[in-house]
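Lecture notes, unit on protein representations.

Consider one protein chain, 450 amino acids long.
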Amino acid sequence: MTEGLAGLTELMSAEGELFDPDHEAKRAARRARRRRGWIVVVLVLALLLAAGGGYVAWALTVPTAAPTVVSQTPAVPVTAPAVIALPAEGASALHVSGGQEYLGDAGIRFASGTEEARPIASISKLITAMVILDAYPLGVGDPGPEITFSKADHDLYDEYYLRGATIAAMPTGSTMSLHDALATILIPSASNYAEAVSTWAFGSQGAYLDATAAWLEKNGLTGTTIVEPTGNSPRNTSTPTDLIALGTLAAADPVIAEIAATPSLTLPGPGTMSSTNDLLGTNGVTGLKTGNLGEGSYSLLYTASIDAGPAGPLSLTGVVLGGSSRASVDRDVVALIDSIRAGFHDVPLATAGQDLGSYSTPWGSTARIVVGEDASIFTWSDTPITVSMQTTTPVEYRDGEVVGLITWTAGPHTATATIELEGGIDPPTEWWRLTHPEDLGAGEAAADFG
């Protein structure tokens, strides 16, 4: 019975092979594997016998082939451009300087709206003050000449009062230094002082206008028109580009810059006066001049200094024309300054333990290649970032061994992180050495694991 079952099994197996179209190929593959196994065994035995143990000594001591390395440079972070909160109404412009390593020597400029000339209202008074100072230069702390106000000057108070303009008391026969008179023009924006002092400086309004036209031409402000000294006329106009240039000139004049940064002052005659610039001292704002011709015609020419972290202090000169209200202009300027500050940021580059590749061996021992430490870089907006990776052959193939360096570059700045092994390469076993002669020894590319 047993012999019958064995015969049946053999017959079924033979029939299965007869119906298997790949049966000859399979049998050939099995024979080849058996031959290779026997060849290794025979080779080992032959070497043992022929060399009297020399193979064993060789197999157990010869350096193995160096581990195979597979690695990749980390992806380069792509950052979004800074979102600059330019005002949606009217027209605006902003120039940012400083932080040359990030922004370049020329700085950067932003603008919204059109470049057409628009009414500048009391920003005109800043031009008036600078034209007067051009004729009567003052140093810091220099009060300048004394001005005595006449009855005609006093009458300007009533005239501008009836026109609804900003005014300050000017008693007949009162005196004031040129410095304080300029402060009264700029800080509370007193229109009667703007006309009285400009007439004093040049003898007449016609002479003042001639001097102003010459000053504008000398300073390249060809897009600016001034027809009177106060800005109450909508015919006093300028462009955003001209006003940025005007703001830069004003900020560079220490007397003007000092006056424009003063939130309030008290003088004999006018009494206590407050700046019309509500943003002074807020969000880094340091000046310069407001303008107002009613709803839809609010303006502000401003300077600010902000801290941009590693980029250092930044100087901002900006202008908003045609705002719907003083509050809306102020909100827009604060948001714009905040967005410039936020445009400088740390960009995460890599984290400790981030995978970069691996080392592997024929005997199955592996180690990961990883970033050794967190890395980030400080930069402006979407400044392009490049990355390079340099690696060295491990000496010991031990856990934590430093095997290279990654360098990221953004503009003039760099950040680095070490490349390390996570996990070590264990040496092969003696049995593996004895049974894998074909994997032993690799000349100059060999490594000794003990």
